[in-house]
Amino acid sequence: MMQLYLNLIIKSIGAVSSVQCPVSTMQNHARASFCTQANALLRKNLTFQKRNVKTNVRLVLFPVILCLLLFWIQSIIDTQIDKPDFKCGCGCGRSSESDCPDSEKVCGVQYSNPIQAASCAIPNPPEWPPLMQLPATPNRTTNSSPFTLLFTAHNLSFARNVSANMFGTMTHFSTDLFSSLAMHLLGSESTPGTNNFVELAFSLGLPIYYLQTKCTGSSPVSFSSQAGVYNEIRCAQALNLWRNSSSEIDSELYKGYERGNKEGHGNGIVSAFDFLNSNENRYNVSIWYNSSYQRDSGTRNVLLRIPRSINLISNSYLQCLLGPGAKMLFEFVKEMPKSETRFDIDVASLLGSLFFTWVVLQLFPVVLTSLVYEKQQKLRIMMKMHGLGDGPYWMISYGYFLAISVIYMLCFVIFGSFLGLKIFTTNEYSIQFVFYFIYINLQIVLAFLVASIFSNVKTATVTAYIGVFGTGLLGGFLFQYFVQNTSFPRGWIIVMELYPGFALYRGLYELAQFSFEGSSSGIGGMKWQDLSDNTNGMKEVLIIMFAEWKLMLFAAFYIDQVLSGRKSPLFFLRGCQKKPLFQQLDTQMQVSKVLSQMEKPDVIQEKEKVEQLLLEPTINHAIVCDDLKKVYPGRDGNSDKFAVRGLFLSVPQGECFGMLGPNGAGKTSFINMMIGRTKPTSGRAFVQGLDIRTCMDGIYTTMGVCPQHDLLWESLTGREHLLFYGRLKNLKGSVLTQAVEESLKSLNLFHGGVADKQVGKYSGGMKRRLSVAISLIGDPRVVYMDEPSSGLDPASRKSLWNVVQHAKQNRAIILTTHSMEEAEALCDRLGIFVNGSLQCVGNAKQLKARYGGTYVFTMTTSSYYEKDVENMAQKLTPNAKKIYHLSGTQKFELPKEDVRLADVFQAVDAAKRKFTVSAWGLVDTTLEDVFIKVAREAQELDALS
């Protein structure tokens, strides 16, 4: 399925971006096929992966360590649950376990142990007298510290009549003491348990109080409860106190609660009642109760004792209407019968939603970092410039990350299953496979999409890990609450699941819930038929993730194409696009026209040559530029910036064209247009007959680039770099091996193990030489070298020059440099670039003859004869110009057309006979002089305009 899907992607990519481009007549090498490009990238990725074994081990160890941690916690809990407290066995009723003889042991439910009672089978639950929850007060004795019940109502007299019947004055208990307890209002200061299988007040022998209006002369009564424990029943005074409103009761309860918390005991208020609009024909009562017991301990259930308060006020209402004899007896409370409950706390199911969310999301920073690293180091651009198409890149990169993710998840599930974690073993593996497979695909395309936002690896890594842990915490402490809250709208749950992290958390939550419930009930975990259950969110999660996977994949590809700078946002509607308009360039255009009118004859000649080449049926030059312009829009009120102004240039095969110019002249902008990194504002250029505006994919296959800054993988070796780029240029087998060996040898990267050393350990000069070797591998027809010799020592520079001299014999090379010596040694023709315009074109001798035109005459004498030297220069030519004078040393520019070399030598001989000449010299104009002169004139002209 995955291979079919990738094929569809590749076909769609080709359909969207296809442009009819003519086949170059000068292309001698076949373009690398799709499979060849994919094979090259896959080999590079596998080699890169092999270099990062330690990182991969740490990545795989993260889920392994987490599973081991959960397994260790599970073992500790299982050991604790295996103790007698959690089992139904035989134990002592009253004596300690150490000195309890077998004759006193009781088998079955041990009422002194509520945890054990919860695990036992209880077919006939015991009946317990109902109790009211009493607040705990210190040093309680009979007739002291009365309990208080508050009441209020709209009808004061009616409320007083009802409340007067709450407490009786009887103190008589029948011989059947346990049955007669229902006639009294009983209460306990003990906190209730989680159920009524065991009433702690009776099973632990705690004091029981019966509430009376007066306790004079009352004495405690002792009896033995069902738990075999002796209990003592004591009288406790209770008062009914009137309050004017419910707000007064609220205020008093709150103050008493605060005081009770600070003092460590209750405030004496048992409960409160609001009779509201009750009367003889209407019974409507609100009851306050203390819920802090339940809040303070999650194992308590104070609601178990609320029924006694309801019975109390209901009886009082009946007696008010029918007399004291009317009574609705509340004899006992009991639980429903139950079977044996086996304590089986599955830690992986309880914590899996949070922990496993972190495990799966751990892959996201890995994929994102890898993509942003290629973007930050401009490696993706470098690969594309050497022929790697979008189809192979997306297929191999996607498949590469998918393979890593699948292996990661398989290790995670297999190891968790091996340890017996029930979230894996109880749920069907096919459901888990589909769930994890869809999500890791969604996660990969999400990484491709998010990578377009970041340009720095550190920023992307920090942001990604914050997202990983933030998603887990928000899912565990916020999203899960909404899922469990049945009153929360289901529609908003689905909206929240549109965020992939919450969709992952919801799926893991459902798996954990099914494994937890299945392990406790013995039914098993999630099955496919369970997805039809409306309460199971797995089905909607799978649908959401699958749909987002598809949508994000195309969104990621679209954004990648647009942000690459090669295509407009409407590239899929190519036929409907309008040509770009630049209407706010008035001043710059006028300047451009003025400059074009003042162009030098050699520049005009180059323009005419280009126009002639464009009229021919086929362009037989390697590079032809026709009025190429690049304008960067102005920002913050600044005017637009002309980087390249109407460039006309032709470079035939076998020529090395050198571009000279000061920093910011536009050389790099020109090269960026030619290599496809930026699109020209206007004009056009042809490489091997292919238009750079529409056919860059075809140009890439015959192009080599040595960028200004080295774009290399730090963990790959020099040999591995050349093997990768050689495969992209369709070199195979022994031809590839030989080409790599020759490249390494020619640039002094072969001996001493340098070729097999990781590039991160290379010096700056070694990296530069490797970049040059990459640009020439595969015999490209056109090569761009942006300052290739920067940072090289003299010996390496000389070796590099020999390589370039040899390479230019069968290819066109455009070279930028700041070294005049390098330009003269390598370049067949030179062009000086200033302020985006080509100022002059020609070989070094032509430029020096055309723009130099002077000799530099130097003579050193004593200060006394300086005037004689100046007179001698004026006799040679009236146009002599002094350009230097210091301590007897003077320099003069002598126009070549005004002097002959023989006249200069004769004048010097004559001068030597008249005065002492310490030194003298006559030199021709250097290329550096020409460069400085042309650049200065162009800048002065630009300043004036």
From TrEMBL:
Domain ABC transporter: start-end pairs: 623-860
Species of the source: Psophocarpus tetragonolobus (Winged bean)
Entry protein name: ABC transporter domain-containing protein
Keyword Disulfide bond: no
Highest taxon in the source lineage: Eukaryota
One Pfam match: ABC_tran
One Gene Ontology term of the molecular function aspect: ATP binding
SMART domains: AAA
Transmembrane residue ranges: 59-77, 347-373, 393-421, 433-455, 462-483
